[in-house]
Amino acid sequence: MTGFLLRRAIGAAVTLLAISVIIYVVFYAAPGNVAQISCGPRCSPAQVQQVADQLRLDDPLYLRYWHFLQGIFVGQDFSTGTAVQHCDAPCLGFSYQTDQQVTQLILTKLPATASLALGAMVLWLILGVGTGVLSAWRRGRPTERILTAITLAGTATPVFVIGLLLMIVVCGQLQWLPFPQYVPFTDDPEQWAWNLLLPWLSLALIEAAKYARLTRASMLETLAEDHVRTFRAYGVGERSIIGRHALRGAVAPVIALNANDFGSMFGGAVLSETLFGIPGLGRELVHAVNVVDLPVVVGMVLVTGFFVVLANAVADVLYAVADRRVVLS
């Protein structure tokens, strides 16, 4: 098991390094005046030259990338013309639009996105896997047809439509909840949960439809295998077969999909964050793209890639827990 974990850790580190190289080359080696793009259209020639000096644009590309990578691990200093600012590790640079460290900017937005992603993930796994298992168990019955129709409708419905309907019905007509207004967990945990309930539900209902269909297909495939027929021949109860054997064998694709969805949520939940006014990474990324704040865009994409790789590394470990044969592969 130790060797398995070590291989996965090395693989994750290599993947992150490759992602950083690709992102840096795409954004900082693109044709055009990178300093002017990073600084913005209103910058004076002196300010553009200052940005070019900070980005070390006169150095070869490989040397610039080395300094960028060095800043992530040990930090780096930036000259403002009249003073020197130190950026602590992990340093992703400075925003030339807000004159703020990108790392600090990301850290201020991260709790909101993490709150949205974690709560929605718990709900979509409960709803999606539960619905998929029930649909496979009741195959050929009216229950399965109803659940299949619901999951198809959920898959075809955009998240902002579900969110708007929930706000109109739950907050407007029924007045069960106030209109969402994000409250940090550290300020008031109860209000934090109540104000995130609708965003969680809107995301979970959409994602749960995918997980229900995937779980149903995996369950049906597992239930058709020889060892399950053997259990039935020995008189093992259907509930025991479903819960202890078939579900464990069908969980691998669910883990893989959940890892990708959860990781991409850190930067990809733009519609939900915009609709419900959540000050998260997705909204900040859209703003950075609109104002062409290049260091922030690069930092956000790197952070999103980091969480995707991290989630997939955790998924590999969960594979090993669910199926010991994975350790040997």
Features:
two-stranded antiparallel sheet; mainly alpha; MetI-like fold; 2 domains; globular; 329 residues
What does the model show?
- With 329 residues, the chain is mainly α.
- It is built from 13 helices and 4 strands.
- It has helices at residues 2-28, 34-39, 45-54, 61-74, 102-137, 142-156, 159-173, 189-223, 226-233, 238-268, 270-275, 281-290, 294-322; strands spanning 76-79, 84-87, 94-95, 100-101.
- A two-stranded antiparallel ribbon has the order 1-2. The protein has a two-stranded antiparallel ribbon with strand order 3-4.
- Helix 1 (2-28) runs antiparallel to helix 13.
- The chain is globular and about 80 Å long.
- Keywords: Cell membrane, Membrane, Transmembrane, Transmembrane helix, Transport.
Number of strands: 4
Q: End-to-end span in angstroms?
A: 11 Å
Largest sheet data: 2 strands, antiparallel
* CATH evolutionary superfamily of the largest domain: MetI-like
Q: In terms of per-residue confidence, which ranges show pLDDT below 50 for 5 or more consecutive residues?
A: none
CATH class of the largest domain, anyone? Mainly Alpha
Strand order of the largest sheet: 1-2
CATH level-two architecture of the largest domain:
Orthogonal Bundle
Fraction in helix: over 70%
* SS-based class: mainly alpha
Count of folded domains: 2
Strand proportion: under 5%
DSSP helical segment count = 13
| Outline type | globular
Radius of gyration: 24 Å
CATH topology of the largest domain: MetI-like fold
